[in-house]
Amino acid sequence: MITITGKGVSTGVAVGPLYFYRRASGEIPRTTVEDSVAELARFEAAKQTAIEQLGKLYEKALAEAGEEAAILFETHQMMLEDLDYVESIQGLIEGDHLNAEAAVSDTSAQFAEMFASMDDSYMQARAADVKDISSRVIGILMGVAQGGIDSDVPVILASDDLAPSETVQLDKSKILGFVTSGGSGNSHTAILARTMGIPAIIGVGDQLKEAFEGKEVFVDGQTGEVVVEADDVSRERLSKKQSKERARRELLDQLKGKPNETLDGKNMMVYCNIGNPGDMDAVLANDGGGIGLFRSEFLYLQGDDYPTEEQQFQAYKTVAERMGGKRVIIRTLDIGADKQADYFGLDKEENPAMGLRAIRICLTRPEVFKTQLRALYRASAYGKIAIMFPMITSVWEVQEIKRICANIRAELAEEGVPMADYVELGIMIETPSAVMMSDRLAREVDFFSVGTNDLTQYTLAVDRQGNNLDKFYDAHHPAVLRMLKMAADNAHAAGIWIGICGELGADTSLTETFFALGIDELSVSPSAVLPLRGAIRAIDTTASRDRILAELYE
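RESULT FIELD:
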């Protein structure tokens, strides 16, 4: 038995085989092959595997999100069997004796360029599709599993850490828990684990050996303990803890359908944070009251080209419809800093957390922004969609956003496109300047949502992704809590509501404090909804408010 210790960032106990995340090398091999017949057979086998994978994805999307969302995978299957595409690849293998990977790559580039140069917007969108299907075939040829996991059974996934673009593509049905050598409590691996409600442990360093691959491991996300090939005593101890956790979840299930109401009758809206329509099953299973944060940037991170208006529309529409008229707050593109997509072509920055990111990209690349806004307003006809803008620092930014939104609405109305009569517009409060200007900003919008992860980072001058800065990154710091109070007071003075969508919202040790500060809504990972509801229902705000505020300002 070997015991490894890291830091638990998502609670729970899981057991399963350890599996190391596989990455593509990045470089596509280019060789001359002598046996073209054998190479053609390699390509045909990979193509068939890709078609089968897409068929499974079609069935999954059909069950979870409906026909319109699933049709993309059926389209990709058809493209893989397109004679022009297939014959181009075959010609390069037979005529030029290219290896299959290079033949697929060259054909992909040729067809993508051809589609992109067409005048028709529908055909231009096919450029991204041909890149997508080609990437899938190349990955199969190179032995890189789609979703990074080539296993028939669910696994404990091990990695150094995962980038946002990697987490979005994981086959989540195969993951029991995470163990990473690096990372932080605010890493996207940790956030994904909390969304999924599975244990995660970070910071185990070089204790994590590839020699452990395939061995049975227990992970305890509360203690940060990883046990490889547990002995009988440890197995019994961790299995009992896992059973107790299961029993606790069953008790929490009894809170489904109950109001988020304190003992003295105060209510809190409890919403969910999601990254894509696939997270909706967890939202509904955990009785989320709405979507407080749809991180739309993950639609941009899952491919190698900009998502089209139609692709975005289908994603937003699916979530709006599945929420059945409950509020769905969709944050506009928040690329930059720790979330990078190569095709954006962003310059390398010394301090990307304070560079060209989020709303700054949208306002400097209006064509990208307008495509997303068109999709959002179109989707508003199918549910209660609200739009939220990140990284706001100034009033002029909001006024410019509102001008662009008005133009988009007028454009769609002229085209006869249906949309909601009114769509709420809100901003994220995640910079000190937004807090200090919150009295002015509140007059411009319908709601505030505080991104406590970034607000803490900027207020305390601590990199939220810093592996060795956890002791300095204190989201409970009085400066952060006072900023929440100032923003809440200014929101209420202007007649708008204020929520929290950062990770701090799920911290039940602060639930009483949030009531005292005047927070109206908490948006959390789906797995945190019922524990938070239990905490809310045990609070008497009348007894605690004055004491909490006195302690905060003493």
